[in-house]
Known about the structure:
The chain has helices spanning 2-12, 15-26, 42-52, 81-98, 109-116, 119-124, 135-141, 151-161, 176-184, 207-216, 218-229, 235-242; strands at residues 32-36, 58-61, 73-78, 167-172. The protein is α/β, with parallel strands linked by helices.
Amino acid sequence: MKKYAKKFLEWLGVLEYIQLRRQSLKVLTNSTILIHIGKCGGRTLKEGIINAKRNGEVFVVHITKPIYRPDLKYIIVARNPIARLNSAFWWRYNLVVTDGIQKNRFKGEYEVLVKYKTLNNLAEDLYFEDGSSNLNVHQEIRKIHHIHEDISFYLEELLTKCHSNQIIAVLMQENLNNDILRVFGYKNDIHLHRNPAVRKGDFQLSDRAMKNLLKFFWKDYKALVKLYCWGKIDRDIFLKAILPEV
């Protein structure tokens, strides 16, 4: 019965609102929300916080949009969007196709991963030669876990509501251990969810693939630019985060 009720709420378009409302009621006043964006090192940070035991009440948001309240503070873990996409693709490919342990976890994900085999192949088909959108491929790429939940999934709405002083810190995956030391005052020795070993060439993207990904995920970059303009990301680290990896 619960399964059908959930589908009915999704059809009505109110499921997300109800989930956020429930989440909001659980969060204590003046708490900190740790926004764990998939494949950005958030789990490493979460475990580090728990083990350090130097912080107050911290609520972790993962695979759902963060709630907004004016009394809350936020910690964001982010990363170069293209590097995050590559990491997400191969993490899912290993679990879904190579090992097969999550083959049926998300509808349609296995079929997309098997069809394209690499992020490069998938990215090259996002747009036609004339620059118009290939809507079928747009839908396919969103079937991949952690790619569906991109950086803008977590941050777009939040950053339109919150004040800059509500963002305690942005910790960048490219500088994560240093950022943990700077923000929380302890040296992090925990590293979780390393990507499975794949051939170096698998991560390479053609110029066309890179261009298409930059175009399709432009909102991810918009979020990072806003955080930089708010003074939450160091300039050198920001440049590493927005420049395409080659």
